Amino acid sequence: MMKKLWGLLLVFVLISPALAFQKSEIDPFDRDENIAEERLQLIEEELPPSEIPITLNERVEYFIRYFTTKKRDVFARWLARSGRYMPMIKEILRSYGLPEDLAYLAMIESGFNPFAYSRAGACGIWQFIRSTGRKYGLKINYWVDERRDPEKATHAAAKYLLDLYQEFECWHLASASYNAGEAKVRNAIKRYGTRDFWKLSQYRYLKRETKNYVPKMIAAMIIAKNPKKFGFDVDPYPPLDYEVIEVPGGTDLRAVALASGTDYDLIRLLNAELRRGKTPPTVASYPVKVPFGKGEEILSALKKVRFIYTRQTIRHRVRRGETLYRIARYYGVSARYLKRVNRLRRNRLRIGQILRIPVRTQAVLYVSPHPAPPVKKVKKTTRKKKVLVYRVRRGDSLWKIARKFGVRLYDLKAWNNLRRNKIRPGLRLIIRPEA
To answer: Which H helix or E strand runs over 360?
Structure first.
């Protein structure tokens, strides 16, 4: 009797892993009971019209409730920002013959924030990674990152989505491929023998992020097309109305802002692709976006400004796979120039080697073209501008130091030639409180 029991137990132990494997292939959709206590009572006929099939299922309903409860404040910001870019995005998508509702991919990708960065290195409103951005014609270098240019990035996204649709012939699969990559979705189709996104999302092969991607887009679309129905009373920001002018290379955007009498943050938003807050000093001129109707005024003011030229030296640490030509192209200089200033005899570089890249910039400091009002002569006194040297301590951040001394973070980084916000204890920082 005992032998029979042990035999049955052994059979169960051998069979149970196989059963567990079959179950593990299926990915049950775990609903958060705090968010989704009851199914939404939406009727199929009430759904907004769209060229993208709107499937109302448990996942879509979950994200409708998620965006209208737990993430309500976040979604309200997305709705507000959508006013700046939605008209432009829809117009570009239509010009490629694409459904204009694909604009909601940008909403769930970035919330229409051109400065959005992901942990994977994707950025811009369409969250392109470097390789895909370059593949579709976006320029990415030390000075410029066109992934952050909403208009150029939308053209690139339209081309990419068109390619994806031509392969999968389904907007759900094309959208999932935009998130996971076409190879991942292609392999999932081969593995499970179906081209139905909802069936593919039942299995564990696709990442949870990808399986939730299409339901998020559909949920965002349903809410954004009728926000008041879901209790959102949000006034969208007006579209960014601008014109383009040519300014000299190396021009600081702060000079453009002062010349136009416009807030610097608006000029920076209009020219989000400029990573360093200035036009590339390696080109003769560069197109800059300014508020509509201000172009002539700005050009006239900039002609009267006496620029003070400065020379900035960038330090670059050579990484695996980099070549002299590739580094030179990234900074917008010639390989010959890079070789000469670093006194290199050969083109071969070693990993960890430090290269110096001197560049000329202008308008970091400048003299206002408007004459100062006459003043009475007083006894001349000389006063030197105060310059402090601060030693970074453990727990310090650039933001804390800037606030402590009452200076702007942007200026603090410029004075110390810092590319990033990361600092280490012991670093000495130059601070000009009266600058």
So the answer is: strand 354-367
